[in-house]
Amino acid sequence: MTFSEFLTWEARQAERHEFFRGETFALAGGTARHNRVVLNLTSRISDHLDGTPCQVFATSMKVLVADAVLYPDVLVTCVKADAGDERTATDPKVIIEVLSPETKGFDQRAKFILYRTLASLRQYVLIDPAKRLVEVFILAQNEVWLAADQTQDSVLWLSSIDCRVPMDSVFKGVL
Hints:
This protein has 175 residues and is of the alpha+beta class.
């Protein structure tokens, strides 16, 4: 399937699908643990962004990058002040992926390679809710991505939007 064929096809689908290298991948519903972390993050980040031009979105907002269509678990964009009917986020500043056993490898490698081509992206965060691991990649001034393991930190720090989320809040309700 070509990229344009995928976009036409996906618009008629009830479920979300990612598109990568000519293949489509159905996105299954997440676990309660996965959803809890996404909701916790979205809520805390949304509160932090209140009154700014930035917005946070979860799970259903797609990102077009190269010839791929991806659905990050959480993203922050600072492009528009008002949300409308758009289904695609342009210029994400922060992307967070909550890992699951099925998508972990793709999120850690191929997705990150694609996302790094976005000029607007400043942070990429990987969270493993089962192991409570938190890895934050930050774009440094010299255009090099630096990895910061925040697993043992008391807060998740999203420096690009100056947001601190207590780790207890990230994992609230997660067994």
